[in-house]
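Q: Hi! Curious about what Fe/B12 periplasmic-binding domain-containing protein looks like structurally. Here's the sequence.
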Amino acid sequence: MKIFLLLVIFYFYSFANVINCSDYKLKVKNIIGQSPPVNIFLHSLYETKFPKKIDKKDKRFSKIPSVEVLAKNGVELVVLYNSQNSFESLAKKLKKIDIDTCYLKLHSIYDYINAYKSIGKIINKEQRAQEISTYIKKELNFLENITKNIKDEVTIYYAKTDTGLVSSCNKSAHTEVFDLIKAKNVVKCGDLEKKRVTLSLENLLLLNPEVIVTDNKRFYKDIFINKKYRFLQAVKNKKVYLVPKKPLNYIDNPPSFFKILGSYWLGKRVYKQEFEKVDFKNKKKAFEKILLNKE
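A: Let's find out. The predicted structure is below.
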């Protein structure tokens, strides 16, 4: 109990002096995100198209550069998100060179609804922000309606790396797509959320998920030919799926608004009856038009 209280106090202290972006009152033109999820989010607010494939080396979507580069480029505001270090420490460094900071919560796709409105006000893109916010809310309501009667939740596992033995916890932002379609992540980490965990082959065999998804092409090929995986029911029933990654991973890496598209893609495979009437092509077209500025 004492450890839990200390964690709560530490968490509160780290965030105490960092303003939420919804409380930021100034208007800015030069804004940048601390990490890829924020920069992908920010890019969608501008009427510019996304590349066919988002490269991690692309500066528009990468982590923030050095403080010196930020100052040289005249950055006015840095949007912070899920920092493993203290927000306060970075905020103080930036404040010394007259760069503001604010915190944006983007853990869940539901957070995006208000996040767009908050940033839209700051960068004078309120109409655009409202359009995206309304779209996300509508799609989430749609997903809730078509999954509300699902009682027997399908068990699912997200296989990472060449071995497939690295995965993400059930409360992680990296596996929220499973929650959105009412699938049950077999990797449970208790109250303490972890981004990734490493399993043994024995662990995976004991969990024996009904469905396996992976974003690793090598593992996807290997799982069907390597005999050590043959006892997994997902392999026996050929319910192993490779996650689309153009222009960005539909599930995570990094977590983003692509979770909406990922929910329809995965739902069509996991719950064929509930998602039978969902026209994925039309859903994808609408998604790309609104969020990726694609005609």
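A: A fun detail: Confidence is low (pLDDT under 50) at residues 4-16.
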